[in-house]
Specification:
Layout: H1 2-21, E1 28-36, E2 39-45, E3 53-58, E4 61-64, E5 70-72, H2 73-79, E6 87-95, E7 108-111
Length: 113
Protein backbone atom coordinates (compact mmCIF):
# COMPACT_ATOMS: atom_id res chain seq x y z
CA UNK A 1 0.00 0.00 0.00
CA UNK A 2 2.81 2.47 0.88
CA UNK A 3 4.51 1.80 -2.47
CA UNK A 4 1.27 2.64 -4.31
CA UNK A 5 0.82 5.89 -2.33
CA UNK A 6 4.43 6.82 -3.06
CA UNK A 7 3.90 6.22 -6.78
CA UNK A 8 0.74 8.38 -6.77
CA UNK A 9 2.52 11.20 -4.93
CA UNK A 10 5.47 10.98 -7.33
CA UNK A 11 3.06 11.09 -10.29
CA UNK A 12 1.28 14.16 -8.92
CA UNK A 13 4.60 15.91 -8.27
CA UNK A 14 5.76 15.09 -11.81
CA UNK A 15 2.51 16.43 -13.27
CA UNK A 16 2.75 19.60 -11.17
CA UNK A 17 6.37 20.12 -12.15
CA UNK A 18 5.63 19.68 -15.84
CA UNK A 19 2.60 21.98 -15.67
CA UNK A 20 4.46 24.67 -13.73
CA UNK A 21 7.25 24.96 -16.32
CA UNK A 22 5.52 24.03 -19.59
CA UNK A 23 4.63 27.60 -20.59
CA UNK A 24 8.26 28.64 -20.58
CA UNK A 25 10.09 31.63 -19.20
CA UNK A 26 8.40 34.49 -17.41
CA UNK A 27 7.30 37.68 -19.13
CA UNK A 28 10.16 40.16 -18.88
CA UNK A 29 10.79 43.88 -18.52
CA UNK A 30 7.72 44.69 -16.38
CA UNK A 31 7.57 48.48 -16.36
CA UNK A 32 5.35 51.55 -16.38
CA UNK A 33 4.51 52.44 -19.98
CA UNK A 34 2.15 55.36 -19.44
CA UNK A 35 -0.64 56.85 -17.35
CA UNK A 36 -4.42 56.46 -17.62
CA UNK A 37 -6.93 58.22 -15.33
CA UNK A 38 -4.07 59.30 -13.09
CA UNK A 39 -2.85 55.73 -12.53
CA UNK A 40 0.12 53.89 -14.06
CA UNK A 41 -0.27 51.66 -17.09
CA UNK A 42 2.03 48.64 -16.84
CA UNK A 43 3.45 46.69 -19.74
CA UNK A 44 5.85 43.79 -20.23
CA UNK A 45 7.60 41.89 -22.97
CA UNK A 46 5.82 38.70 -23.96
CA UNK A 47 7.73 35.41 -23.85
CA UNK A 48 8.46 33.61 -27.12
CA UNK A 49 5.92 30.87 -26.27
CA UNK A 50 2.26 30.99 -27.38
CA UNK A 51 0.28 32.85 -24.70
CA UNK A 52 -3.48 32.58 -24.17
CA UNK A 53 -3.61 35.16 -21.42
CA UNK A 54 -1.58 36.63 -18.58
CA UNK A 55 -2.08 36.40 -14.82
CA UNK A 56 -1.46 39.75 -13.14
CA UNK A 57 -0.51 39.01 -9.54
CA UNK A 58 -0.98 41.63 -6.85
CA UNK A 59 0.98 40.78 -3.71
CA UNK A 60 1.22 37.20 -5.02
CA UNK A 61 -2.49 36.60 -5.70
CA UNK A 62 -4.15 36.61 -9.10
CA UNK A 63 -6.04 39.84 -9.61
CA UNK A 64 -6.55 40.20 -13.37
CA UNK A 65 -6.32 38.17 -16.60
CA UNK A 66 -5.57 40.35 -19.63
CA UNK A 67 -5.01 38.81 -23.06
CA UNK A 68 -2.56 41.56 -24.02
CA UNK A 69 0.81 42.34 -22.38
CA UNK A 70 -0.40 45.36 -20.41
CA UNK A 71 -2.74 46.36 -17.60
CA UNK A 72 -4.15 49.67 -16.39
CA UNK A 73 -3.77 50.05 -12.63
CA UNK A 74 -7.07 51.95 -12.82
CA UNK A 75 -8.71 48.63 -13.84
CA UNK A 76 -7.16 46.94 -10.80
CA UNK A 77 -8.69 49.69 -8.64
CA UNK A 78 -12.12 49.34 -10.30
CA UNK A 79 -12.38 45.55 -10.47
CA UNK A 80 -9.81 43.90 -8.20
CA UNK A 81 -9.97 45.42 -4.71
CA UNK A 82 -6.74 47.36 -5.14
CA UNK A 83 -7.01 50.42 -2.91
CA UNK A 84 -5.82 53.97 -3.49
CA UNK A 85 -3.00 55.12 -1.24
CA UNK A 86 -1.47 51.64 -0.91
CA UNK A 87 1.70 50.17 -2.41
CA UNK A 88 1.51 46.76 -4.03
CA UNK A 89 3.98 44.27 -5.47
CA UNK A 90 2.80 43.43 -9.00
CA UNK A 91 4.15 40.59 -11.12
CA UNK A 92 2.97 38.63 -14.16
CA UNK A 93 2.76 35.05 -15.42
CA UNK A 94 1.99 33.88 -18.95
CA UNK A 95 -0.51 31.04 -19.45
CA UNK A 96 -0.36 28.85 -22.55
CA UNK A 97 -3.33 27.19 -24.34
CA UNK A 98 -3.05 24.08 -22.13
CA UNK A 99 -3.33 26.18 -18.96
CA UNK A 100 0.32 25.78 -18.02
CA UNK A 101 1.78 28.80 -16.26
CA UNK A 102 5.18 30.32 -16.87
CA UNK A 103 7.58 31.34 -14.19
CA UNK A 104 6.61 34.57 -12.44
CA UNK A 105 8.15 37.81 -13.66
CA UNK A 106 10.20 40.11 -11.49
CA UNK A 107 7.90 42.21 -9.36
CA UNK A 108 7.34 45.95 -9.60
CA UNK A 109 6.35 48.08 -6.60
CA UNK A 110 3.39 50.29 -7.53
CA UNK A 111 1.84 52.95 -5.33
CA UNK A 112 -1.78 53.59 -6.27
CA UNK A 113 -2.65 57.31 -6.31
Amino acid sequence: MMKRVGMIVAGVLLLFTQNAWAAGPAPSNLRQTGVFAGQPVLGWDAPAAVVSYYRVLVDGSQAYRPRVPSVKVDDLVKYCHVLRGHTYSISVQAVDPTGARSETSESLQVTVA
